Amino acid sequence: MAIVSCAKCGAKNRVNEKAADNLKPVCGKCGTELDLTATQKADDGKPFVVTDATFAETVAAAGNVPVLIDCWAPWCGPCRIVGPVLDQLAAESGGKYKIAKLNVDENPRISAQYGIQSIPTMLIFKNGQLVDRLVGAQPKPVIASKLKSYAAAAAAK
Q1: 54: CB partners within 8 A, 6+ apart
Q2: How many CA atoms lie within 13 A of 56 on its CB side?
Q3: Which residues are catalytic?
Q4: Rounded to whole angstroms, how far apart are CA atoms 121 and 138?
Q5: DSSP assignment of 75-120, as one string?
Q6: Dihedral sign from CA coordinates of 123, 45, 55, 102
Q7: Terminal C-alpha separation, the chain
Q8: Distance of CA 20 to the CA centre of its chain
Q9: Which residues are 14's β-sheet partners?
Q10: What is the pLDDT along the chain (157 residues), one digit of tens a residue?
């Protein structure tokens, strides 16, 4: 799944790239055709979306680079507070860590596998293994400190 911003209204849309080969995706808000050349990549300094289907591959592909998975839901107030903080951290990452978002309502398998009972929950993975968990809306310095400590450990090796 890729995130594509609508050129007309600015809404962010999830697009299944395989299905987009056969069908022309349109914005869910205004109906304008979406430009797939604007898709976000996992290393573009923005959080990217993971799903039950892409989770294992995403975590494994990161290797020694820490990956923070933000388990959230659109109706959750604290999740909406943490969202901009994670956007800032992703922009500041410089490739030292990655930030992804997992909608718990749409991805129950991963939510159950990791016992997500309260959101937001942020899971930090390194070398494919869960190394840390932050529950609740945490301030930016707390999240940044955790990410930087795991990134520094990765750089030291």
Answers
A1: 1
A2: 4
A3: 76, 79
A4: 10
A5: T-HHHHHHHHHHHHHHHH-TTSSEEEEEETTT-HHHHHHTT--SSS
A6: positive
A7: 32
A8: 21
A9: 3
A10: 677 777 777 777 888 777 766 788 888 889 888 776 544 444 567 898 889 988 998 888 888 999 999 999 999 999 999 999 999 999 998 889 999 999 999 999 999 999 999 999 999 999 999 999 999 999 999 999 999 999 887 666 5
- 90, 45 contact by CB (below 8 A): yes
Q: Which CATH class is domain 48-156?
A: alpha beta
d(CA 109, CA 99): 20
- What are the structure tokens assigned to 5, written together? 């911003």
Q: Which pair of tokens denotes residue 35?
A: 């430009």
Dihedral sign from CA coordinates of 72, 73, 74, 77: negative
The structure's pTM equals: 0.71
Record the tokens describing residue 77, joined without a space. Answer: 């107030």
For residue 146, what are the CA distances in angstroms to 7, 10, 57, 90, 113? 35, 32, 23, 14, 22
In the chain, list all ranges with CATH 3.40.30.10: 48-156
